[in-house]
Automatic annotation (TrEMBL):
One of its GO terms (molecular function) is cytosine transmembrane transporter activity. Signal peptide: none annotated. This is Purine-cytosine permease. One of its GO terms (cellular component) is plasma membrane. Keywords: Membrane, Transmembrane, Transmembrane helix.
Amino acid sequence: MSQHNIEEEIEEIAGGEFERVAVPQSKLKSWKSFLGMYAGEHAAGTEFVIGPLFLTTGVSAFDLIVGLLLGNLLAVLSWRFLTAEIAVKYRLTLYYQLEKICGKNLVTGYNLANGILFCFLAGSMITVSATAVGIPFNMEMPKLTDTMPNGMTWVIIVIFLGAVISLIASKGYETVSKAANWMSPVIVMAFLACGVVALNQLGVNSLSEFWDIWGEGSEPFPGQIKYTFWHVVIWSWFANAAMHVGMSDLSVFRFAKKASSGWTTAAGMYVGHYMAWIAAALLYAVYLKSPEAQAFLSNGEAPTVAPGPLANNAIGVFGILAVVLAGWTTANPTIYRAGLAFQAIVPKLSTFWVTIIAGTLATIAGLFPAFAMKLLGFVALYGFILAPFGAIIVFEHLFHKQAGIVKNYAEVANLKFNKAVFFAWAISFGLFYFISVQFDVFLSFVTLPAWLLCGVLFLVFSKQIQKR
């Protein structure tokens, strides 16, 4: 059988997405494919929420602008030198890679948690798009403190958007990538336009006046915590902890020809997590001067953070369109990743159907505004839970020889449940979550210590278990 026929047979077995085999050479993609996807995914719906939320924490100009520069650089380096390097070496999904190390039963629990958390994140992006679609219908916008759906119009719009987004994601990586490539330039232009218009509305004519928008910072809004320079740096580094140090993007970069494709994440970080966050924060700064926002503040409440009206106020219909597309470009690859997580649990189900299931869960989550309105805290928790599992892969890859342990031990020893992995994660998660809660430590501050401890404990426990 020729190599081409073998690859076609593999693809047919894997449902077209190579979920349980290495991606063959003929299916590898150039860096351009990833550039569009990362620019689209990270100049996206979350940015319309996160930018304004930074202002609610009372952050200063220096802390925001310089802190984001450093934090996003650390994120790019994590993708390039950890995720992409390991992805192109093995070319396996995160879920199949973990199964070889953890065993089928243990990784099933991980995949379930991972898939559900991805669905919640995608759901928050459906919420973002809904705030734009609802404008022509005079829909009541969710407040910062809202948890439940606020009306039937909201429910109908969210369900419609969720169905469309799920169908796009169900078509596989190729379609997700093409959608991102098409949408991302429009979204980037919209963010830039929003920032320029907002500066004009704020009467900014010089760098010093721009700096004065945040100045030395302020007291946080009701219900928010105060962010300092290190809050901004560490949070922006670990905003995507599950994807880079948590190794979730092994599933994406396994298609890359070279590990250098990892540098394309800089497009997402500095166009999305820098320019777009600041542009969205400027939109909110304009809104805070409005009588409506001042009325909220005078009553001791945080003003509404609704991306649709904020963008509409700046650039009209183009702003509404940009918010809708921005929600799509985040939700699409997130639902795709969730589908892969669920498929690892039920491999007999096709990629199409597991993605539809993931999209349905995301749509249900999107009905509840709390996931979007509490996005800073949710993203920190999500990374903290999942990132330590990435340390298992990284530490085994880098140190298995020095530690004297067998790689992919669960596969080699036919284990269904690798106790070394479970106890390493449980101890690191439990210890640092307790520290965060008991001593009121910002959760993102303990993500890196938990990740490092999990990796070290995994090596120690693996050594002892494999000896026995």
